[in-house]
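Predict both folds.
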Amino acid sequence: MPVVTGNFRDITNGSLDSKEGIVVFTLNDTNLQVGGGLRPDNSREVAPDPTTGDFSINLTQTTNMAKDAWYDVSVKWLGSDAPLIGRLGLKIRVPASGGPLDELYDLAGVGGGPNRRIVWVSQSPPSNPYPFMLWLEQEPGANPDPFDSQNTSVLYEWRP
């Protein structure tokens, strides 16, 4: 399994002095991993080193799943009577090589990575499609000819 590393202080922009925190990685949806079977949408947790804030966790690769997949990253604060969950709005995609957390979030489109849900609208397919790209077989523009036989309005999705 790929190893994801990071530092708690980078996530929270603070220290570990006042509260204990656990970093939580939750798969966005139940999915099928190509060649690896069903992956439930469960959570994995890691406790950072209390002195340095460093952490390391084995996560399932998301870049080879049948549906678009990522992990939501959150923090579970344990310093109160009931744990509080801090949602970060951070999504990461995990390649086979794993890597540092601050490099994986770009793969989820947060920092300019690929948006896999863009729709190509044309009467001809894209010349270089990527996995999960959509193609609407339709004449682009404001006034497509409804009687043109090439305007099928069929939506295709490329699968790896």
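Second protein follows, with its predicted structure tokens after the sequence.
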Amino acid sequence: MSGRRFGHLARLLNLTAPPAAPGSGDMWYRSDTDQVRVSDGLAGESITVGPTGNVPVVRSTAWHNVPAYGNAASANVPDGRMFAMPFWPGRTCTLTSIAANLTLVAVGGTLRMGLYASDGVLPTTLIADFGATAAPLLGTIQATPTPVAVRPVLHYLICGRQGGLLNLGVTTRSTWDPMICPTSPVIAANRNAYYIDGVGGALPASFGAPAGTDQGVALTVQLT
């Protein structure tokens, strides 16, 4: 460990793999995963210091659920409504694919998906627009964008309907998310997403002030 006399800053040893034989209390920074680690002196996985996010496990090429818990249900998606679901991986990773499940298809409709940064509370600037994917059949609809590097901080995944006739139903999860804060004290329904309305084309560069909170779309994301 190195330190600076003025300002009392300390810098942890920067590693891309666990040290060979760490002792109890040893700390280091894993620059490949952006995690601070500490050893309790025992063999096996080192302890991660700090929050692990709402997607704490990154199993390479496997699918991770957002939200990660709650009973599966079905919800109707209004045309032009973009849901923003909290996505906070516990380590640096790469998002390679994203999927949703359709339960009722609107004729000619599409789903648009994307990713926004946050200010630690609300969605802010657009990181990537994954485009609009046609929704002609029931079942899983998947977008495979250019891989996006994601830091272990709060982001928001976006999914919403654009166009089509009649109703479009998607699988959702009956659960609250502590990152979603309604402006009213009334407990009316599950709240696990912010949303904005009236998005008929590309996602806006800035998410802006949320129009409200609601039960959003259940997504799965493939991470490496």
